[in-house]
Amino acid sequence: MKVKFAFTIGENRMKNLFTTSMVLLSFAALQAQTDVVLTVDDTNNKTKTGIKFKGQFNSWTEVSAFDDGTNGDATAGDKIWSLKVSAADGTYEWGAVDQDGAWLTPGVPNYTFTVSGSSVTGSTSIVIPKLKPMHSVVFTVRDLPGKETNIKLKGSMFGWSTKDMFDDGTNGDTTANDKVFTLKTDIEEGNWEWGIENQCGWKLQGSNRQFTVAVGGAVSGSTSYSIPAGGTPINVTFRVYMGDVIVNANGLYVGGDFMDQISGKSLCNWTKDTLRLADANSDDVFEMTLSIPAAKYSYKYFNGRGGDPDGEKGDFKTGRCGTDNGLGGFNRVLDLNGVTRDTVLHIYKYDSCSIYTPMASGLNKGNSVVKGIFPNPASATATVMFHESGVAHVVTLFDMAGKAVSVQTISAGKGFATISRPGSGMYLVQVADQRGGTAYGRIIFE
Hints:
By secondary structure, the protein is mostly beta strands. It has helices spanning 2-30, 316-319, and strands spanning 34-41, 51-55, 63-64, 80-87, 90-98, 111-116, 119-122, 125-127, 134-143, 152-155, 162-164, 180-188, 190-198, 201-202, 209-213, 219-221, 224-227, 233-241, 252-256, 285-293, 296-303, 322-324, 330-335, 343-349, 359-360, 363-364, 370-374, 381-386, 393-398, 404-410, 416-420, 425-433, 438-445.
């Protein structure tokens, strides 16, 4: 019995060892790596001084290639750049950049190779074709607002790497500091497109500029661009009610695509923690006045530098005060096209299209400027009655997007103003008298 018992234990141990060995072998098989040699052949031109590979085999991290007879390279100095990588079974996309960071094959789909056991199929080599003749091309960018200090050109002819432009009288630039940035460079014959960046990122408005360098060097198409100057600046007062929200200790900010247009400042659009609003009257209404050209902009409010990094998250499109931002969220819209006067925006509630105004029966509580607005709702016209007729008043009607749709100056001696129906909907009425008093009311036109 003891012998039989001992044999049973030994049999179980053998089974366990066998099972464990099979698991380890299976795991090793799953993790097996196969060496793959990737190459870039620059023997046609011999112009590259450095190559880096990147692809799914290493999560698109750039890795330097070799032309020194090591790391999978067959022959040193032959302008065939090589890199030996290890990859498990699967299919991998990859590509390469040169010493300037330019993608070697712009406009061409990523190369792919497949590893199956010890077999490697697909594309593991890039052959750079012989360059066509190069010709001199001059690019110019006119900075009409006169605010730029660092303009870079990037385009398909450079593999979308960037090139510095100059406003210092060198490198093809004719006059230093005239806000005309220039780049003179040799471009291969062919069809190309380009754009510009500044320190904030992409600066070109509209589609990429396109040009052609024909056989023999004739250049046609667009090789110049002017950064728009914008319209005459007006003062715009941003306002938001925070009575329903805990204000972050780091402050409340406004940001949008108007920021690079602010007079007297050099800011990047959508910087979230630069333009800080203030609650000067301790009434939970935060304000800031900025001078910007009259145009159409997108914006939103940001509660704190780190407390609310993505800013407001309300559905401004459904609320009819904004639009889809294309990134899964919404922006407020500020349409100042055609506006020539300084503008005070609605007091929106944070994260909402609802307008806040401390009113009773449609008027400021206890105000001494306006006696009443009637009828309300109105069909064709409404009348705004003033408490005093001996002073002048300015009556401004705003739509729900914050755009002034009518402005009337009522001279002293007239105690009322008549507002004509601009269209159906709700509007905000702002009344200011010559003594500095201001009141707000809401009017609905049916």
